[in-house]
Every structure is written in C-alpha cells, then in structure tokens.
C-alpha cells in the first residue's frame, strides 16, 4: 500500500455517544494533537441530553439526528486546523464509533456525497439525504418484539448466537432495521443504503458509501462470524432486499479509497490521503490498548464493556462474540453493561456535589464490603441482567429505600457495578485471577479510587494507559496498520510504544471480602428477576 513519509501523520476519530474526538499521531504513533466536540455543549440546538434524544412517550426509544453528527464533524475539523494541525500531512484516516446504531441513507444520497460543493457546509448539503431522520442508537430498547421474531425465524436464541455471535438484543442493528421496516415501510422503501454509525462516518470522508467492517458488523445479529458474510436467514427474517442495502462487509483494516475532494478543497487534506474502514468503539479500544491473549479490557464509558481475545469463536449464554479488528482469523468476547458513566454521574450528583474528588473521598472512607450493604443501580433497561431500577439491600439482606449515609451509597454503586461484572464474566466461563491483567480505559479509568475497587473485586492488578482515550487511539493505530499490514504485523508496528502502567493491586483480604458478595449478587439477581 506504500510507505508513508517520515513527517506523515495519521488521524484517528471517535464518534462516541456524547462527542466526536480526534487524535493526530506521528509516524512513531506518538500523539501530537487531540481535540473534541461535545454534542450537548457545542450543538445545543439539537437538544440532546447525554448525546441522545429520548422519546417523551416511550423512554425505550433513544435516537440521534445524523445531521448533528455531520455538523459536529465540520466543527471538529475546524478545531484541528485552528489548533495548527497540517491536515495535508495526514496519510490515512480511520475511526471508531458507538456500536449498533444505524443510519438510513435516502435514495440519491450517494450521488450527493459524490458531488459535494466545497464552498458550502456539509450538513446543509446532506439535509435531505436521510430516509429516517432520527437514527436509533445503542441505548434504544424498543425492539423486543423484533428480537423474538428473529430468534424464532432462525430456530432459537442459541442458533442465532452460533451464527452471529449473539442472541438477539434490542440495541442490535438487525432488530432495529426490522422495526423500521415494520413501522415505517415507506421510509424503508426509500432507503438506498443502511450504514452503521462507523461506516456512516467513513462514508462522509470517502464521498461514497463505505463498507461495513467485520468487527463492527458482527454486532448486528446479521453477520455470519465464521464465513464473514451476511447470513441469508437472518437478513430474510429482518427485512426484504437487505443485502443490497447493506453492501458487502470487509476486513477492519481495509483501505476503502482516497479521501473525497470535498475535504481536500475545504480542509486541506492531501488527495492521496487514504480512508481506512471505521470500526466499533469496542474493537477499536482493543486495538488502542494492544490487548494480548490472557488480558481483559474493561472500558468504563457511557456503557461499561468487558472485552477478552478469543482464538476460536464460541457460543456464549450471555454477551457477544465479535470478529477481531486486526485479524480475519481471530475473535473477541464482549459483555456490555448499559448503565455505566451516566449512572455514576447520577450518584455523584446526588451524593458528592457533582465533584469527582468528593465522590472519591466518600468511596475511600468506607471499608471493603461496605458494612454488608449492597446496591444495584439501573437508570435505564440493563442488558445483562435485563432489569431496571435501583435496588438497595442492608446487611441482613432486607431491601431498603435508602442507605444510612452518602459514603455508603457511593461504595454500594461502585462495588455493585464491579461485583455484577465479575459474576457475569465467570458465568460465561472466563476465569480472572492473579495472572490476568485487567486493562482499564474510558473516563472512569482516570479515577484511582474506582480502579482500586475494581482491583479488589476481581482480586487482580489493574493497568492503565496514560493519555488519550483508547478507542480514538486505536483508530489512529488502525490507520497506520492498514497501510503497512502486508509488510509488518501490528505487534511490530506498535512494539516501541510504552507498556500499560500498573494502577492498583488488590488488598490481601479482597478475595475473602468479594467472593461471598458475588454469590450474594447471584441470589439477589434471582430474586429481582423472578
């Protein structure tokens, strides 16, 4: 694919739930610039909260206008230029994005992408290019009916998981497409292409429809993760003519073409700059953290996710198996927990005056085990387990409405979140012990008090990478890897980078404190669910 010049740079982007992020790295993969645009703060006209819009009549419905993402991208690139970044030196672009969300391009949209006027704003030119004006995103939980229909059509939940790597989940793209087809048939007929959020973002830079990559595509309930082709039985169960609307999937490290002339003329990119497949934020985090066999990645973001590399695909009772972004022969196990940072921020607001320092002081002031108190907090319908609401239990196991103090509430939240993760990881067959490294990333990985609880609950050391978010960094690494994968392995390309740093080690009594709490969690969960 060619060797970049010594002063070449690589641009990594991340279209997350709450913001667009950008990072520029040099030929040695060192960060030279980073910036971001926050949706709530910087684009108030779209009236998002936490980057999304909740339906006022059905809070299970969670969407985003894709035009907001387009306008925010323009603002992001302007910030890079104002910050002194020479975009003409960018050899390749890749990106990550929140998984599962879908963008429905209207008939004729690709022609518009191919004929953009560099003298006009991008969001103005694409205003009529979407057949569905509000894109469903990963927080949407309104497709239970379509999930059951899909599972029934293929022969059951386990059969679907064996094909696609997952049971049917409300947030997954296949059931979401089925809902659009069933409830908005005219919009579906007027749809020329359906993109994931990642391939939508890549399409903007490419100036034509970008292909969905294997890693992000395996979070749709549509891709056969072994053959890397769309499953015909799954497609037929969701909507007609779906293969044509999706296009053919490609490896995550594919170079999909050169950048659109719009970005060359308007922002100063080189016409030789390559657009590499964009992928999901979780696969990109695996790339950014340079995960190896035996490691476990815990991403503490808007949602919390647990990721572990797999040599062979397996069928999980909970969670997901995704295709690896770095190899067509490898796989990744993933468990997703919807109530992550927003729930932590809610308790911070209620108990710690909206200050993380006070939150940490309260957390540190209580003992491991929290005097026998235990709490589970689900602001929105959780994925694993499928429950909603707040559940507080005292030492005697009696459910209570409130705890005795704010410090107890804070520790109950953090311990409850990590105890649940340990229980569900163990339930799908993963053993996390002292020989395992937990690599933490995401916003909460900057809080050492939270990481100490994580280390104690799992009874294993926790490592972090300093600096930039792992998903956007992974996108930048992927951009370089795509240009050089034929001559160098990913390990060779990144071998000179610093190793993750030890953040916390477990206390000596951690195992004896938290193993009974994991057992207690399972008993509480059975009571809640039943």
UniProtKB/TrEMBL annotation:
Instruction: Name the keywords, alphabetized.
Output: ATP-binding, Carbohydrate metabolism, Kinase, Nucleotide-binding, Transferase, Xylose metabolism
Q: Do you know which InterPro entries this protein is assigned to?
A: ATPase_NBD, Carb_kinase_FGGY, D-XK_euk, FGGY_C, FGGY_N
Q: What does this protein do?
A: Phosphorylates D-xylulose to produce D-xylulose 5-phosphate, a molecule that may play an important role in the regulation of glucose metabolism and lipogenesis.
The Gene Ontology terms for molecular function here are: ATP binding; D-xylulokinase activity
Q: EC number(s) per UniProt?
A: 2.7.1.17
Origin organism is: Gryllus longicercus
Q: Which GO terms describe its cellular component?
A: cytosol
Name recorded for this polypeptide: Xylulose kinase
Family note = Belongs to the FGGY kinase family.
Ranges of residues in domain Carbohydrate kinase FGGY C-terminal: 297-482
Give the reactions, separated by semicolons, that this protein catalyses.
D-xylulose + ATP = D-xylulose 5-phosphate + ADP + H(+)
According to the entry, every stretch annotated as the Carbohydrate kinase FGGY N-terminal domain falls at: 137-288
Some GO term, biological process aspect, for this entry: which one?
A: D-xylose metabolic process
Q: Name one Pfam family in it.
A: FGGY_C
Report which superkingdom the organism of origin falls in: Eukaryota
């Amino acid at each position: 694919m060619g060797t970049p010049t010594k002063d070449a740079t690589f641009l990594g982007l991340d279209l997350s739930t709450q913001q667009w992020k950008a990072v520029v790295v040099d030929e040695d993969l060192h960060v030279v610039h980073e910036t971001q645009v926050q949706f709530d703060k910087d684009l108030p006209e779209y009236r998002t909260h936490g980057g999304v819009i909740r339906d006022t009549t059905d809070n299970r419905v969670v969407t985003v206008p894709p035009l907001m993402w387009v306008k925010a991208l323009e603002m992001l690139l302007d910030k890079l230029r104002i910050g002194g970044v020479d975009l003409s030196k960018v050899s390749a672009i890749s990106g990550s994005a929140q998984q599962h969300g879908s963008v429905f391009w209207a008939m004729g949209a690709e022609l518009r992408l191919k004929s953009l006027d560099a003298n006009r704003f991008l969001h103005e030119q694409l205003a009529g290019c979407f057949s569905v004006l509000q894109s469903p995103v990963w927080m949407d939980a309104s497709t239970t009916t379509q999930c059951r229909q899909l599972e029934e059509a293929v022969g059951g939940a386990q059969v679907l998981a064996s094909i696609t790597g997952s049971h049917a989940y409300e947030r997954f793209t296949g059931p979401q497409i089925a809902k659009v087809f069933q409830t908005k048939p005219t919009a579906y007929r007027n749809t020329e292409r359906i993109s994931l959020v990642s391939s939508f973002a890549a399409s903007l830079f490419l100036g034509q429809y970008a292909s969905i990559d294997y890693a992000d595509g395996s979070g749709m309930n549509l891709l056969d993760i072994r053959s890397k082709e769309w499953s015909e039985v799954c497609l037929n169960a969701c909507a007609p003519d779906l293969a044509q609307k999706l296009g053919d999937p490609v490896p995550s490290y594919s170079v999909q073409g050169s950048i659109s002339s719009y970005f060359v003329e308007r922002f100063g990119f080189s016409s030789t700059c390559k657009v590499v497949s964009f992928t999901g934020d979780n696969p990109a985090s695996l790339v950014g953290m340079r995960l190896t066999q035996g490691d476990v990645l815990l991403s503490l973001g808007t949602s919390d996710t647990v990721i572990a590399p797999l040599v062979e695909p397996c069928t999980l009772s909970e969670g997901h198996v995704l295709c690896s972004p770095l190899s067509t022969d490898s796989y990744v196990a993933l468990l997703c927990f919807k109530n992550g940072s927003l729930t932590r921020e809610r308790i911070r607001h209620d108990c710690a005056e909206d200050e993380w320092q006070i939150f940490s002081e309260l957390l540190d002031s209580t003992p491991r085990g929290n005097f026998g108190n235990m709490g589970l907090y689900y602001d929105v319908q959780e994925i694993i387990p499928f429950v909603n609401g707040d559940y507080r239990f005292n030492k005697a196991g009696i459910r209570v409405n409130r705890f005795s103090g704010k410090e107890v509430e804070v520790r109950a939240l953090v311990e409850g979140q990590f105890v649940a993760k340990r229980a569900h990881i163990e339930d799908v067959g993963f053993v996390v012990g002292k020989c395992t490294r937990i690599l933490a990333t995401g916003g909460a990985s900057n809080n050492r008090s939270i990481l100490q609880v994580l280390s104690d609950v799992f009874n294993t050391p926790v490592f972090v990478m300093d600096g930039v978010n792992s998903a956007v960094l992974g996108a930048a690494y992927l951009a370089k890897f795509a240009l050089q994968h034929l001559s160098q392995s990913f390990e060779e390309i990144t071998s000179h980078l610093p190793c993750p740093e030890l953040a916390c080690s477990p206390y000596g009594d951690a195992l004896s404190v938290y193993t009974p709490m994991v057992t207690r969690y399972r008993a509480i969960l059975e009571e809640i669910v039943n």
